[in-house]
Amino acid sequence: MRVIALDSHWQEAYEDFLLSGETSLIYHSVGYRDFLRDMAGGEPEYLLALDQRDKICGALPLFFKKGCYGTICNSLPFFGSIGGLVGATPEARAALLGRYNRLIAEPEIATATIIENPLERRDNDDIRRDMTDYRIGQITLLPSGDRIPESLMNMFHQKTRNMVRKAEKSGVRVEIDETAYDFLERIHSETIGALGGIAKPPKFFEFVQKHFAPGRARRLYVARYEGELVAALLMLYFNQTAEYFVPVTRSDFRNLQPLSLIIHHAMVDAARDGYRVWNWGGTWQSQEGVYHFKKRWGTQDRRYTYYTRIKNRELLKLGRDEILREYPWYFVLPFASLHSQEAR
Hints:
By secondary structure, this protein is an alpha+beta fold. The chain has two domains: 2-134 and 305-343, 3-Layer(aba) Sandwich (Aminopeptidase), CATH 3.40.630; 143-275, Gcn5-related N-acetyltransferase (GNAT) (Aminopeptidase, 3-Layer(aba) Sandwich), CATH 3.40.630.30. It has helices at residues 11-19, 30-39, 90-104, 148-155, 158-170, 181-195, 202-211, 258-272, 288-295, 320-326; strands at 2-5, 43-50, 56-67, 70-75, 109-115, 131-141, 173-176, 218-225, 228-238, 241-249, 277-283, 300-310. A twelve-stranded mixed β-sheet has the order 1-2-3-4-5-12-6-11-10-9-8-7, sandwiched between helices. β2 (43-50) and β3 form a beta hairpin. The termini are far apart.
């Protein structure tokens, strides 16, 4: 078993490898790698494990970002993008983690974090770490067959079914509209800003359109009420999984539940197109309202872990804002571990 870095010669074989299994996500893809390079900066090094016949038997995508406190390694950066080992046999896993451990042993590395794939459902005790963080992953297994809309509604909580029906009865209409990115960006910025969170910057919406083909890799669903845009949902697609990526709703129309109707339409479309998993993404344990909203869509919990190796312990003395300024879009370490009061 040997380990190489992905280059243009291996890209087609790598994509075929990802599509040959059930657990690869869009985050592992070449398209998302190129998106991350534009969006988050840094340098990618995607490790491939090859057997004696040069067949790919596993992969580990990595990004490296230099800064004044050292280099940060993520698998992967940007709002908790899933990375980790994908499709690896035991032998490939050992080879990939061996190479990873040698890479992060270099003196310039400050911290390194692997975000495990919740679809892999494997024991990751062999990943070296000094600290861990957790997210609650939630997925809905999409039905197949001739009665997909009815099957989905039967999976949902009564409150969710009522929200979908309320939007329908109110006259909300749903369609795909790839010209509505300005609306998506504006409402996203307003909503996240009102919550005190970190909004995705304007270039995010530009790079999504640059790197993901409409229809095949992305769709922008919108809801209109009396002809006016009131909600939108950006979806990404890869292999067997549909990714719930950026949802927005105008606050003055939230009572009509337009996003719920969008989600139902998008789920029906995804199931009919052969996708088998709807990935809601990760939720912090403190986000109880978000968790329960997703839970009512027939979800299964897939808790997953961030494994962080910290080498430059001076980072623990910094504040949250300083870390975010120096390493934007990268996971450096769990903020709860910082010594400074500013981090609290």
